[in-house]
Amino acid sequence: MKIAFIIPSLANQGPVIVVKDLINELIKKVDHIDVYYFDENPELKLACTTTRISFREKIKFDDYDIIHTHMLRPDLYIWYHSKSVNRAKCVSTLHQDIFQNLKSSYNFLIAAIFEKIWIESLKSKQAIVTLTHTMRNQYAKKIKVSKLHTIYNGRPFFQFDELKEIDEMDKKEIIKLKKKYKIIGISALLTKRKGIAQIIMALPYLNDFALIVIGNGKEKDNLVKLAANLKISHKILFLGYRLEAIRYFKFFDFYAMSSYSEGFPLSLLEAGNASLPTLCSNIPIFKELFSKNEVSFFELDDVKSLVNSIINLEKNSEMFSQNIYKKVNKLYSVNNMSENYLLLYEKMLK
């Protein structure tokens, strides 16, 4: 079996990380893999040949059995060149709630327009993968149900001693904070959709807790101002973007997923792999992936609920730590993910 993956770039971002993990497993099981991408920002190295292309440039589509696209431009690319694809079977993975993600990044009008365009482009594919059943049910209203398949993301298991040490200056700042407080950690692109302001608003009621935020984004300035207005800047460390943010997880006592919407958060799997007691917003996707004995849920935009949820995490930290680790290692491994994709590819070729 020969597979081509088409992605927007080689940036260190969720969908590309998923492709990297998938390739690392599939390359042992298939004949050949190539990756094509559009933007020149090669942060990640992949275990196969990678080629930069332009949108109008045709690759040799029918040299491949499977063409697997991720994100908008690659989906539009296959749609644009659909008349040149004869033998290869095309599959796309939807990594997010399209409308909510675009609305958060742009506005309602842009989200509404581009969701329609994106979904129209998906109709040229033989299969569309959703990351959860919640997402599948949502798109079943807009895409032919027989084309929809659910495959959970997975991440490689790791040991902290296998990872590189963090920057020494970061380490000093973190240790200084840990001497006074228990640390809640977050690693995310800083957008309103991630709901991090909720955690900051709860901190004044949590005397023993501080927050470390890894990541950049257009919401960062607002979060910094909010912390200053609440007079809790001394309890929050904004580290900015860090490559391999997972290296910092060993300094956290707890992890927070405060999102208003999500596709399938890789950092949540990494927190589970690190045995971190984790706080989650009470949204359908998180409730599908984990039970109330595996993560501590809170109601969106309810500070009291969030505070109580963190107290619950602290009180039952050993239970949450063990249960989330077991769940992630059992269901959300990179091996499970790759096996499920391979089964889908084989089914498409039959």
From TrEMBL:
Its EC number is 2.4.-.-. It is an enzyme of class 2 (transferase). CDD domains: GT4_PimA-like (cd03801). Keywords: Glycosyltransferase, Transferase. Residues 51-154 form the Glycosyltransferase subfamily 4-like N-terminal domain. Residues 171-322 form the Glycosyl transferase family domain. One of its GO terms (molecular function) is glycosyltransferase activity. This is Glycosyltransferase family 4 protein. It comes from Flavobacterium gyeonganense. InterPro entries: Glyco_trans_1, Glyco_trans_4-like_N.
